[in-house]
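Question (not urgent): is this output format expected?
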Amino acid sequence: MPNVPARIAALRAEMAKRNLDAWVAPASDPHNSEYLPVRWKARQYLSGFTASVSSMVVLKDKTYVWADGRYWIQAEIELAGTGIDIIYLGKPDVPAWNVWVADNLPEGSRLGFYGATMMAKALTDVEATLKKKNITLVTDEDLADLIWIDRPPFPMNPVFEHDLKYAGETADTKIEKIRVEMKKLGANAHVLNSLDDISYVVNLRGTDVTTSPFFHAYLVITENSATLHAHTVRFSSEIRARLAADGIALAEYDAFFADLAKLAGRKVLVDPAQSNILTTQTLKKHGCELIEKRAPSIMMKAIKNPTEIANWQNCFVRDGVAMVKFLTWFYQNVGSGKLTERMISNRIDGERAKLEHFRGLSFGSIPGYGPNAAMMHYGLKDGVETQVKPEGFFLLDSGGQYDDGTTDITRTFVCGPTTAEQKRHFTLVLKGMLGLSNAVFMHGTRGLQLDILARQALWRDSINYACGTGHGVGFFNNVHEGPHNISTGFTDQAILPSMVVTNEPGVYLKDRYGIRIENILLCKEHSASEHGKFYYLETMTLCPIDTQAVLKDVLGADETAYLNAYHATVYAKLSPHLDGDELAFLKKACAAI
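Got this back:
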């Protein structure tokens, strides 16, 4: 375990030299990435808290970490004994870190953070309060860099093409679409910080992040030019030639901030949720007028093109076959009591690694037995082996990155005898999952309006889960992708045809067990009438759901029919690729109830 108090003490010493009253370490890099290269995990280095989403505020005498509902239990375990206080984000009247800082720092305070790792929106939301209290921002130094002696360097593996036969659209076509949107907004330049958007636009991928296919870069688009700032040594002559043909110039990554001077006086489109403060400050310094709107590429990549969808359907067949091979092994061995979480995680990761077009995992597999499954983003720890007993539930959340798609699937498996309560909770989760899967809704419907379909059965038993129900998924891109979602919070983005979204209700009971069932859904056109357009959700994920714990009398007739039809589809699409024990398992697992 890292010596967290010593690291925080070293940070406070640097804060004192600069007369800082507070220092913020977000879980972010200069590109607002969800999953970070180790180099940018400063908050994890300072606190020992491994959650992918969280922020840390260090005062002169106190330290706080904000953790949302997915990470409450994990935070309590990982931060025990560090002296760090947990702020339970999501509980009533608990403010976000930026609101808390603005409200609680005394007038005239000095607030520090590294501007490249803080997105503009974080401070835009509290700008009025900061000004009113005369709080000074100090953003030009990365204090973590001063105390992180063995900080990893930038990754330098080669960048590679995302072939047009998968991407379905050329980079120059995407850039022209962005220029059309720029013109509508009155912008003559657009600066992109976000790695997933940049990779999507230029049809390139990398390996800088273990579970996300990106490379460090910035992209600047003007009315008649495009410049990709990256570590150019990583680019082959073939890729350089293709970029040139698409009208994209290459420049060095480290020259980006200096090169922003070339945009002096222009109207520049920046996305405040995706652009770091150092970028916006530099543009303002050069007299640029900022047009702060959502980046056009966000909606472009959310609406999957026909080529992407067709490829993805093939990807789900392969991924489903890997899951069935894994499940056959799991059920053959779970009764022995000799399995461990790590063995199971290694097995599913190994099955995916055998697949054609495999590029890595889409996130670190989450194998949770019993109480561990109550932590939504539980992860294996070095030196810790948890045995899987032949009783209760085992939860596995996993997924892969492939040239032709990204997968994310959760299944909860029956390991042996289960209690009446466990059976009921499993069935209620399944009811919610099937209810949302079978939804038909009007054009303009937001995720908030759909969310209750997944929660209603649980709410009737006074049960809730402290996270969203669904998130968008990228195509060989981020496993979590906006701008849409399905949750109890309002996101002003309709669910539209050719968007994909996960469906993953659950039950999480601290120190007892967790249950989640997750599929990926594709929004499609259903019908149109004098009342408007209607859409439905087609399930893309292909993998049987364990029915051993299902209380058949709790499922409604429509839910049972949908489940049986889903399993018939799974069998029809996966069975041609299986034989022997694996085919026999699939047939049994997909039997109608």
